Amino acid sequence: MTGAGLGKVAVFGAGSWGTAFSVVLADAGNEVTMWARREELAAAITERHENPDYHPGVRLAETITATHDVEEAVAGADVVVFATPSQTLRDNLLDWAPYLPEGAPLVSLMKGVELGSLERMSEVIAHVTGAGPDRIAVVSGPNLSPEIVRREPAAGVVACADEEVAKTLQARMHSAAFRPYTSTDVIGCELGGAYKNVVAIAVGMAAGRGFGDNSRASVITRGLAETARLAMKLGANPITLMGLAGLGDLVATCSSPLSRNRTFGERLGQGQSTEEIVGSSHQVAEGAKSCRPLRELAARNGVDAPLAEYVDAVVAGKMTVSEVLDSMLERPTKAETE
């Protein structure tokens, strides 16, 4: 059942996914206040009930407002959600942490690994805020934001080390169009979400070169195997990688033209450079930032990660897509389960 009048949620981030998830939360019965980096965007959301920059033409509920003031955003909130680009989270949290309501669950919507520290987003939240694992949750799954704001049926996973907290959050985000499942496997959900962006870039590179379904399916499958190797080495449940936060998210991100990471990869495959692609878009392809820390995280743990290595090389301009394809095909053969 969906809830009604559940409470207030503060959502930090007024981009595509932050706005879409605010719609989910409002539909579930929550009052939502979004924190927006730009005052003019906050004003548009509150006064016009629309996010003109990311979801133009989509009417937002009256129970969704926005502000640029941190204290106003968290006033009265009993759940806090973070939906910023992963590489900006730490700096933002340093500013926000003093205002976060004591004891409130802190929910990450971000799918990335931090450059330098190689920390997952839940780890960044823990280190900056001091919150324990029983307060930190992540949401993942096949949730492309344009479909979510149109209220097309979708499912996701909310994971927290404390199962009761996961169940509480599940009730807070269960709407008529969004069905959340619970998990205690935070590591599996986060690595599945971060790695699928890298795989989607690789799939996009193949599509950009004009290759068909066989090539793309091969990349998706080997990408899932690579994800599982690293996730399991770090303690994840392999079943998680077969579920919504693993295979489900991977299929959606690798297959849809709505995916920023898939589109980023296509443009690389068509011969554009990372600088050209970034300069022509105001939205972030998280996989372009996460490929290097994921490669380094795999190396630190002795895990073979050729896909992350190759995508990182192309994104960094060290290899061309043609060179990567040649190198992948020239790799020594082995058993599939090896």
Strand order of the largest sheet: 3-2-1-4-5-6-7-8
Mean pLDDT: 95
CATH class category label of the largest domain: Alpha Beta
The total of helices stands at 16
The CATH homologous superfamily of the largest domain is called: NAD(P)-binding Rossmann-like Domain
CATH architecture of the largest domain: 3-Layer(aba) Sandwich
**What's the helix-strand series?**
EHEHEHEHEHEHEHEHHHHHHHHH
Portion in strands = 5-15%
Helix content, binned percent: 40-55%
Main sheet attributes: strand count, strand direction, barrel closure? 8 strands, mixed
- Global outline: globular
For the secondary structure, the number of strands is: 8
Low-confidence stretches: none
Alpha-beta content class: alpha/beta
| Alpha-carbon Rg, integer | 19 Å
Q: Key features?
A:
8-stranded mixed sheet, 338 residues, Rossmann fold, 2 domains, 50% helix, alpha/beta
Describe this structure in words.
The protein has 16 helices and 8 strands. The protein is an alpha/beta fold and 338 residues long. It has 2 domains: 178 residues, Rossmann fold; 144 residues, N-(1-d-carboxylethyl)-l-norvaline Dehydrogenase, domain 2, CATH 1.10.1040.10. An 8-stranded mixed beta sheet has the order 3-2-1-4-5-6-7-8, sandwiched between helices. α7 links the parallel β7 and β8. α8 runs parallel beside α12 and α8 packs across α15. The model has no long low-confidence stretch (mean pLDDT 95).
